[in-house]
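Model it.
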Amino acid sequence: MASEGRRRARASTRGEPAMRRLSIGVNWQGAFDLDQVIEQAKVADEAGVEMLSIAEAWGRDALTLLAVLARETSRIKLGTSIINIFSRTPAAVAQHFATLDELSGGRMVIGLGSSGPNVIEHFHGVKFEKPLQRTREYIEIINMLLAEEPLNYHGKIFKLERGFTLRFKPVRAHIPIHVASITPKSLEQTARLADGWIPIFLPRPQWKPQLDSFYSMVEAAGRQRSDVDVRNPSGVVVSENREAVKAAEAGNAAFYIARMGDFYYEHFSRMGYADEANAVRRAWADGGSAAGAAALPRELVEDLSTVGTADECVEAIDEATEAGFTLHGVSVQERDPKKRYDIYRRLVG
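Modeled.
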C-alpha cells in the first residue's frame, strides 16, 4: 500500500497532476448520526480521499461501522485508528479484518495500538503487560492467518499448536498493518515489522528529527522508505472557526498529557516539552480540564495542526509531504455535501 501511494504522490514527475493522499477520521464514541457518517464517507469516496479510519475507545466498537461503510463505499480504504491489542485475540482481529476485507473488496487497513493501563485494566479487565512483545506477536499471527499458513506459533505470549487456518480464503494474502508508536523501542519495532506508522502529537519543529530517526530505523531493518506509510498527526482542518478548533485541540492534548497515564506526558518530555507537560499536569490537578488546556503554550498548540482555508491547508499538506509524511489527516467543517466535496477535491488536487 505504501509504495502504491508514493507512486500516486509522484505522478507529477510524469506530467500528471500530483494527488495528495488524504485520510479522514470518524469518532463515533459520543453523539452520533449514522446517516450523516454514511453521507460523509460517500462524499469522501467520490472526491478521491484515500482512507477513512475509525477510532475506538470505551464507547462504540469500530468494526461494526466498518462493516456498514464497506457496503456503502466503493474505492476509499477503510481502517482503524486504532483498536487495542488486548481486548481481542490476534486470531479474532485476523477474522474480523479478513471478513471486512471480503465485504469491502480488499480495502481494509488494520490500525493497532497498545492503548494504556487505565482502559485495558479498568474497562476491559485485562492485565496491561508486555505491550511491545504483544504487538509483535499480533502482527506475526495476523499475517500468518491471512497468508493461509497453518497456525503453529510459539511466542512468549501466544502458544498455538494445532495448525488452524481460516475456514475461507482471504481476499488478500496481506492486509496492511499500521501501528501507533511513541516510545523508541516501539518505533524501532514498527519500522521493522509494520506497513505504517501512526504517530501522535508531533509539533512542526519535531517533524525533521522524528522522521529522520524513524526512516533511519526503516533502512536499518533492510527496508525501503517506500515500504512504510507514515501518517501525519499534525492534521489540517478547513474551518472558519479557527479559535474554537484550536481550543478543542488544546483540550485534547492536555487531556492526553494529564489523564492518559504517563505515555503521552513522557512523549512530550522526550521531544523537549517537559516543562510544558509538567505545567499542564499541575494546572489540571489544581483547576481541572479548562486550566489544563489553558496551561498549554499557544505556540505549541499552533505547531500541532493547521486550521484555515482550503488553500492554507493545501500548503500545510504539501509542507508535510516534503518533510516525509505520506498520508495526511484532514477534517472539513462544512455541512453542505456539495461544498464539502469541492473542498476535498481542492485538497486532493
